[in-house]
């Protein structure tokens, strides 16, 4: 073996910015195998054109990409690597935005308290018949699922045609974030005395929801976009807990006004959490307090007459 075009591991370490220990580890893991290993001394030698590969490995590891993933990315070609890097950057920006929102939310709670930021009221939710499409997923798949689910449900509703009785909403059966999966249900309420959906595709069902009390708060504009909206969920949960109510169902994200653009100032969403109204003095006082709070917003609750308008699909938010 002609070693004149090879770099011993010490010089290769200096050129690549990877420590000798890291190079040995990458050899064992198959990420960066030396060009030649002396059978007598065991010394590793690297071709000079591997310096660029080693520098790429160093950069990928600085991005906290696991070693096994680094090996896969390097074996997929430059185009695949570039696509993966763009996706990694989007994920990092998303995590940063979540962290920034969490910090601002905590600072706000320290200085003002959650209830000063989000006013919580109680309303009675009517019994509803709903068209439902559900899927278990985490936050990364939420946008695409809701977009496709509502498109498919509106197609089914149009064949009826169904008469909508209220705004579209989403039910979250647990925590839906970058680390946790949960069942998410896209819901469309429709008039039970009118046309009914037929030929439902697989995974789409009709369900009856009973009337129930809902602890609610509303958010508008940028505050309705993820991740800032998470503070509103926290405020409602804290309100319910402090007043001794019981959580009796998955939280709902109701689309009161949705333009289709996440940061549009005109957007208005409602977080509505089903609760149990126990009839004792403390609970009655809490209910009276919540109902007596002034509300300057227009009344968007459906009346006895069904609406023919198409409700806007809610934005993903948790």
Q: What is the approximate shape?
A: elongated
N-to-C CA distance: 59 Å
Estimated radius of gyration: 28 Å
Structural class: alpha+beta
Spans of at least 5 consecutive residues whose pLDDT stays below 50 are 293-318
Order of helices and strands: EHHEEHHHHEEHEEEEHEEEH
Helix content: 25-40%
Question: How many strands in all?
Answer: 12
Question: For this structure, what is the CATH homologous superfamily of the largest domain?
Answer: Regulatory factor, effector binding domain
The CATH architecture term of the largest domain is Alpha-Beta Barrel
Number of continuous helical runs: 9
CATH topology of the largest domain: Multidrug-efflux Transporter 1 Regulator Bmrr, Chain A
CATH class of the largest domain: Alpha Beta
